[in-house]
Amino acid sequence: MSDIAKASGVVVSYRTSRGALRALDGADLAVRAGETLAVVGESGSGKSTLGMAMGRVLPAEAEHEAGRIEVDGTDVFAAGAETLRALRRDKLGFVFQNPMTALDPTMRVGRQVARAMPGRPGDGEIAAQLTRAELPDPARVMRAYPHELSGGMAQRVVIAIAIARSPRLLIADEPTASLDASIREKVMATLRRLRDESGASLLVLSHDLRLMARHADRVAVMYGGRVVEIGPSAQVLEHPAHPYTRALLAAASGSEQPGERLEPIAGTPPTLMGRCEACSFAPRCAFSRDKCSKVRPEPRKVAGREVICHFAEEVLESSKEAPQ
Q: Per the UniProt entry, what are the Gene Ontology biological process annotations, in alphabetical order (predicted)?
C-alpha cells in the first residue's frame, strides 16, 4: 500500500522566553492511502505539532529545524507559496478541536460552506454537502450562525467544509474532545464513512485510546516528540511493546471494573531544549535500565509493529501475561 504522506526525521522547536523548546525530536510517520491512522499521546507529546506540520500550518513561533514531510508528492517545507496554497486547498482537509473557533461567528453557515466548495455552488449543492456530513434539516443549518448550533452540529459543519474539495488527506485534531460522549462515536463514524466514500486517508490526533481502538486501522503512539510505537490498532492496544503505550492504557478510562482504580503515569512529560540523547521516557519507566539513560533508542520491528525501546520484547511479553 502506497503512502499519501510521510514524515522523516522531523524536528520542530518553538521559540519561548526560556529558549527553543523542541516539540518534535526526529519524528517519523507514514500515512497509508485509504487508511485511518490515529496518533495518540499526552498533551505535549508532539502529536498536534506533527499534524499541523503536514500542511505547514504551524504558528509563527514554530521553527522547522530538520527533516522532511511529503504529502501526495509535495515536499511541504520546500514548497513555494502557490504550491502550498494549492496543496492546502485541493489535497488537505482540517477538522479542528473546537468548531466554534474554527467557524466565523459573523457569517451564516451556508456562506461558509459555499466558500470552501469549488465554483459557485447553489443552495441545493450546499445543502447536499451538509447532508453528506449527516446534518439534519440542511436548509435551516444554512441560514444559521454557528452559535445557533449545538457542538455536534457545528463540528459536522466543520467536517462538511473540510471535505468540500475531496481532499486526499483529512487531518482531524481532537475532533471529538469538545463533544459529549454520546456524540463522539457518531462523529467518528461519520468521518470513517466519508473516508470510505472518498478513498481519502484520515489522520486523527487524539487522547481517546478507547475510541481510536474502535475506529483506527493503525495507531501511532507519540512521546517526547517521537513516534515510540506504531502498528495495527489491535496489536498495539491489546499487547503494547512500549512501556509508555502500556502506561497510557492503564491510565485510560473505559475498561476499568467497578471499584478499580486507574493507574496515573508517574512524573511529567519531558521538556526538551534540544535533541534527547537517551530514552525520553526513562525517568518514568518501570522497565528502565542504565542503557535507557545513556543510549537513544532507534525504531525497530518487533512482533508486527515498529517500536522505539531497548527492551520492547520484555515489555511485550509482560503485556501478554497481564490480565486484560
A: peptide transport
